């Protein structure tokens, strides 16, 4: 399962979602502006971060949009 943690109005977050849609990947988008407690949960899981989106694939933190794109290109994501 792909989890995309983002915020309202974030262009990179929208790109990550669009990429999943284009590739037919199942994902869950979590808008941290709608549920601020999600920010605390994410920090507990991956540590402090400075940008969104933050993407987790099958429990593994792959980073932001660039890290996600790299993993997809390498074929490291099987969902």
Short description:
The protein is built from three helices and four strands. The chain is α+β, with helices and mostly antiparallel strands and 79 residues long. It has one domain: 3-Layer(aba) Sandwich (Glutaredoxin), CATH 3.40.30.10.
From the structure above, extract its key features.
Glutaredoxin, globular, 4-stranded mixed beta sheet, 79 residues, alpha+beta
Description:
It contains 3 helices and 4 strands, in the order E-H-E-H-E-E-H. With 79 residues, it is an alpha+beta fold. It has a single domain (2-74), classed as Glutaredoxin. It has a 4-stranded mixed beta sheet, with helices on both faces. The model has no long low-confidence stretch (mean pLDDT 93).
Biggest β-sheet strands, sense, barrel: 4 strands, mixed
* Helix/sheet category: alpha+beta
CATH class term = Alpha Beta
Count of structural domains: 1
Q: How confident overall, as mean pLDDT?
A: 93
What would you call the shape?
globular
CATH topology: Glutaredoxin
Q: Please give the alpha-carbon distance between the first and last residues.
A: 7 Å
What's the total helix number?
3
Number of DSSP E strands:
4
How many whole angstroms does the radius of gyration measure? 12 Å
The appropriate CATH architecture is: 3-Layer(aba) Sandwich
- How large a portion of the residues is in β-strands, by DSSP E? 15-25%
As residue ranges, the low-confidence spans are none
CATH superfamily: Glutaredoxin
Strand order of the largest sheet: 2-1-3-4
Q: Please provide the ordered H/E string of secondary-structure elements.
A: EHEHEEH
Summarize the amount of helix as a percent range.
40-55%
